[in-house]
Structures are given as C-alpha cells and as structure tokens.
Design goal:
By secondary structure, this protein is an alpha/beta fold. About 30% of the residues lie in helices and about 30% in strands. The chain contains 5 helices and 9 strands. It has helices spanning about 15-20, 30-35, 45-60, 65-80, 140-145, and strands at about 5-10, 25, 90-100, 105-120, 120-130, 155-160, 165-170, 180, 185. Strands 1, 2, 3, 4, 5, 6, 7, 8 and 9 form a 9-stranded mixed β-sheet that branches. The radius of gyration is 17 Å and the shape is globular. The protein starts with 5 loop residues before the first strand and ends in a 6-residue tail after the last strand.
C-alpha cells in the first residue's frame, strides 16, 4: 500500500504555492477597497487599548518574543477589539488543514494559528511568527490555509503578524485565483 507523501505547509515557498494553486499576485490598491470603505472611527477607549498593546509589545520586544507570546500580547487583544470573541463569530486555534493534491500525488498539511469563522464562512486566517522572524515568511503557509477555505466563491482574508509588523492578505477566486497584500503596518511607528 502506497502512503501519500505529506508536505508541511510551512515548508512550501511562495513559488510552490502560486504554482500548485495557480495563484496570481495583484499589486492593485483597488483589490482591498471593498473592505476598507466604511471603517468607523476608533473610540477613545479603543485608542487607549491599542496604545496599551503597543506599550506592552515595545516593553516585551526588548527580548525575543516567541510566537505564543505574540499571540497573547498582540493578536488576542486585536481579536477582542475587532469583536471576534462575540456572537455571531467563532474562533478556532490550531485548526488542522489538509489539501490533497491529486496532480502531484501528495498532501499539504498544517495548522492555522487562528481561524475566525461564521458557520462555514471563513472570516480571517491568522498566522503568527516570533518577533524576530520576517513577517513575510508566513505568506506561503497562510495562502495554503486560505485556499483550503470551504467557500472560495467569496473572498478570504488573512493576517500575517510577528507582533511588530502586520500584513493583511485578500484571496479572491471569483474569476481566477488572485491575491493581494495590504501595506505593512508596524507597531513601532510613531503615533497610533
């Protein structure tokens, strides 16, 4: 009996992921406009909470922050501020994903750090890295997880974050499989 080879999602390069899933990178600002149009102003309380996250990160980042600490100090408060800990949303941590690739005769497997979902609709795939890691090393792995969404007829959003830096990803398979990246957001920038 032949056992299907399993490839960890974290071992794939961006080239591997784009090739396997026929993904095209778009460098167009308009790709993100649909979800950036009507963002409400932050309340003074939300600004205070974000300032606290920043202050705590800057203090703890004087030493290396492992992935789990980044999740506790930065990601968890952001999920709370976004309202993802409240109804109607659900959150899963370490959600296992497997994609069987019949063309290559193997399977790609990994665990999503955080998945925010509503029923079968995936709201956001979040991949965290330790503070010293370049945030972009998480891009191929996160794209694999996003492709695994059960509802690719709607856009899937992702977030890659190392505590210091965060980049949003949008994957759309409406006409063809396309993804785009937001600008990089840095917690160490002046201001809030």
């Amino acid at each position: 009996m032949n056992k299907t080879p399993v490839i960890p999602a974290s071992n794939l390069t961006l080239y591997d992921v784009e090739t396997r899933f026929n993904l095209e990178f778009l460098q167009e600002d308009r790709f993100f406009l649909t979800w950036l149009d009507k963002i409400p102003e932050l309340t003074p309380e939300e600004k205070r909470r974000l300032d606290r996250v920043k202050q705590q990160y800057l203090y703890l980042a004087k030493r290396e922050m492992l992935q789990e600490v980044v999740q506790i100090v930065v990601v968890s408060p952001l999920l709370d501020l976004a309202g993802f800990f409240n109804s109607p949303f659900s959150i899963a941590a370490e959600r296992e994903v497997q994609i069987d690739d019949e063309v290559n005769g193997d399977s790609i497997r990994g665990k999503i750090d955080f998945l925010v979902f509503l029923g079968e609709f995936w709201i956001a795939v979040i991949e965290t890295k330790r503070s010293k890691a370049d945030v972009m090393v998480a891009l191929p792995q996160t794209l694999v997880y996003m492709v695994a969404s059960p509802n690719l007829e709607k856009p899937v959003f992702g977030l890659i974050i190392n505590g210091r830096e965060a980049v949003f990803i949008k994957l759309s398979c409406e006409n063809k499989a396309e993804y785009s990246l937001s600008k990089s957001f840095s917690i160490s920038n002046p201001g809030n």
